[in-house]
Every structure is written in structure tokens, then in C-alpha cells.
Amino acid sequence: MWSELLKEGGGQWIVPLAIVAAGFMLVKGVFGLSRSRSQDRKDFLDLWAKSDKADDLWLQVAVRHLFGSVLPPALIRRFLSHPQGARALGDLAYAWPFLDMDETTGELRWRSERHYSARVRVWERRGLIAVYMVAALAMFGFAWLAVLSGKTFFGCALWILALEAGFFAARALLKAGRLEDAHETVPRWTKGFRWKHGGPDAKPTLSSKRNPKPSRRNRSA
After folding, report:
1. Which residues contact 65 (CB under 8 A, 6 or more apart)?
2. SS3 of 110, please?
3. Is CB count within 10 Å lower at the N or C end of the chain?
């Protein structure tokens, strides 16, 4: 079948078929890595009872191993005896690229000030979904034009653009998913935590961001 496609297409299917083969190997490698990580997690959890949970570094490494993000020890300890501690830590670890904790005050905060607004988080996610759709359509469009162009320099350039568009589409979709989870789970699991500006949805006012200008009466005095 492959030889017939290459013969009828004059060799223009070489690049698409190579990309499909590379994608198949990538998916196979991801599944193999997932099985390996699952076994590593199982072996690691078997040693949980024998480990010293009083050590902050060990707690951070454990959560990093299980959930993929390094969380502050103070936050981890809050959920060790929580009825849904594993779920809470998993959700917060997934959303942690958008969060941070002040080492001095212990306050949680959004890494970006705009995320204090729940409305901004919703619209940013919608914008990322729109970017994903545009980039995905661009990827298929560039790939189709590359097939029509054949084995030319312009065709190779179109394949490169198709790969770049696919990369941006995947990145936008991943960030949209993380932001959606952060929008839904962070306010739920961080109730009772100390937050900068008072809470995860407490958008700071302009007066708190900058010093108010003195009135003319005060300046004249």
C-alpha cells in the first residue's frame, strides 16, 4: 500500500508518511513512559510507610514524584489529614504553574495579577480555545498546501509551518485545560488559606496598587 501511494504521488507522500510514522512512535513512547511512571509510583508508595514524613524536602519530592509539581511543604501538610487530600494535592499541582506562595508570609497568590479576576480567567480560557482552533485549522491548511506543492522548497516550508502551528495548537489547548482546572479547583481547595489581596477572586483595586495622589487642599497645607 505504501509503495503504491509513493508511486502514484510521485514521492510527495514521503514527508506526510514520515510524520505519521514519527507520530506513531511518539505515541508508543508516551504510553511506555506512562507505564514506567506508574510502576515507579507504585514502588515509591510502597516505601511511604517507612519514610520520614517530618522532612520537608522528602514531602516536596514525594509530591513532585506523584503529581509532577513541587508544592510548598506548608501547603502539603494542610492536606495530609484531609478526607480528599490526594485529590486536592493533585488538582493544586496541576494548577500550580499559575500559583505561587510567599516564603515570608506564607500567603498564596496568582503569579499573574489578572488571574485574581474570575471573569478574566474565563475569558482568557476562551481566548486560548480560539487560538487552539485557529492554529489547528492553520496546521491542516498548511499540510494540505504542502501536499499540493509536492517536493519543492515551498512545500518543505509549508510542512515546517504546519508543524509549528500544531505545536502552538497543542500548547494553547494544554494551557486552557490547566487554566480551567485552576479556575474551578483553586477557590475550592484553598478556603481558609491566607491569600494576597484576601482571596483567589479578590481582584485588587487600583487604589491598592498605587499611592493615591494628594488633593490640592492637602498640598497647599
Report:
1. 40, 41, 44
2. strand
3. N
**Is the Cα dihedral 201, 100, 168, 2 positive or negative?**
negative
Q: Cell numbers 499573574 correspond to what residue?
A: 112
37-92: pLDDT as tens digits:
565 566 556 555 555 666 787 788 778 877 878 899 888 888 888 889 889 999 99
Per DSSP, the three-state class of 195 is strand
**Cα(218)–Cα(220) distance, integer angstroms:** 5
Residue with cell 495622589: 213
The CA distances from residue 3 to 8, 12, 17, 21, 148, in Å, are: 9, 12, 11, 15, 19
- What's 47's DSSP letter? T
Choose among 169, 144, 147, 142: nearest CA to 158. 142
Q: Which residues contact residue 80 at a Cβ distance below 8 angstroms, ignoring those fewer than 6 apart?
A: 53
